[in-house]
Design brief:
Layout: E1 4-9, H1 16-33, E2 38-44, E3 50-51, E4 57-58, E5 62-63, E6 72-75, H2 81-84, H3 88-97, E7 103-106, H4 110-117, E8 124-125, H5 132-138, E9 143-144, E10 150-152, E11 156-159, H6 164-177, H7 181-189
Parallel strand pairs: 1-2, 1-6, 2-5, 6-7, 7-11, 8-9
Antiparallel strand pairs: 3-4, 10-11
Helix pairs in contact: 1-6, 1-7, 3-4, 6-7
Amino acid sequence: MKYFNTAIFIFENVEVLDFTGPFEIFNSANRILGDESFKVFTTAESDKIVYARNGLQVTPDFTIQNCPRPDILIIPGGEGRKMQMNNKVILNWIRDSFPGLQYLFSICTGSFILGNTGLLNGQKATTHHLSYDEFEKTFPQVSLIKNVPYVDNGKIITSAGISTGMKASLYLLDKISGEGLGKKTAEYMEYDY
């Protein structure tokens, strides 16, 4: 299997499980594989400590300026997405990264950040169930799919609420490996997949 630089974008007031769930899943897959097929790291706009939801302090591994070129880019959600979805530096970084990505993956209301890049226009997407109305009003060019854990557009995957980011991460492992890696990882983690 090839190696995937797996970047998880973090920001002030990011939802904790949105980024720690995928972080754990991709690293657990490495244990199953016996190597580091997934080089998982966090990245932020600056190298300052990020205060995630409920005050969890996280020091990003890289900034968006010096991180390795991602193959998989994960965009979590949370209350902080309201600032990030209008942050031109971040929106441009995601757009500029997109051609080189294998997968662009949003979790929960991270879909609002993707929506403002324009990359979801003409695509299907999902988001947290409490944000359906806002999403439909904000992104009329995106077809919102409700009551599903994730939506796969090929290169872009969006997942619904907080814990579904874990389910979608396992799905992506299966999609990449074609060998049941998601199922094996879920069994290792004792996660009901």
